[in-house]
Amino acid sequence: MRRLPWRVAELVEVRHETTTARTLVFEVPGWPGHLAGQHVDVRLTAPDGYSTQRSYSVAAPEQGERVELTVELVRDGEVSPYLTEILEIGDQVEIRGPVGGWFVWRPERVAPVLLVAGGSGMVPLMAMIRARREAGSSAPFRLIYSVREPDQRFYLDELASPDPGLDVAYIFTRKTPDGWARPPGRIMPPDLAGASTDIDSFVCGPTGFVEAAADQLIALGHAAERIRTERFGPTGG
Fold this sequence. Notes:
It contains 5 helices and 11 strands; from the N terminus they run βββββαββαβαβαβαβ. It has helices at residues 80-85, 122-135, 156-160, 189-192, 207-219; strands at 6-18, 21-27, 39-45, 51-57, 66-72, 92-99, 113-118, 141-147, 166-172, 200-206, 227-232. The strands form 2 sheets. The chain has a 6-stranded antiparallel sheet with strand order 4-3-6-1-2-5. Keywords: 2Fe-2S, Iron, Iron-sulfur, Metal-binding. Residues 4-105 form the FAD-binding FR-type domain.
């Protein structure tokens, strides 16, 4: 199998999502395109030649030679502190990809979709939501987004904007907004219950979250082969 080449990527736009996360838009000459749900490898190289890399999901569908990533700060990490606190417009990194072909949504799919996100697992699912919107797809999307506290939600304004066919629900595990009906707590079967199990499901987040959500979906009658999962664990950031 042909190895994917590293490409120089220049930062051209920055958007702050939370106090610890920001979206980085790179211009990547020669970029071959990607599907919603895929990820890339980002490599940093120091002047002394030391290099390190991490994988990040792409946050938006194909946009020519642009690649959009949303990165959450890991305080003791090697890569995320540089990407979230130091990298400036005009700076360059190296990007390799796209990677992955299983955890993807294609606009030609018309089946209803359930998206279940835990924390920064929202990133590839946002790419799917944006791809649906850009394609004018009529596939109904339901998003269940679990975060610890309200101020940790990514893409808050965009998800609050009217988007016919997209239903958004939040779960807060530590602290809720004032007057929120559901008490703080982890995702539970009632959160996932719906009118139909004849859907495609995408679940992304920390390993424990993904395993719990997938098990609950199966217990609710969802077919295992229609549940696609993407998980992440401690990587050093």
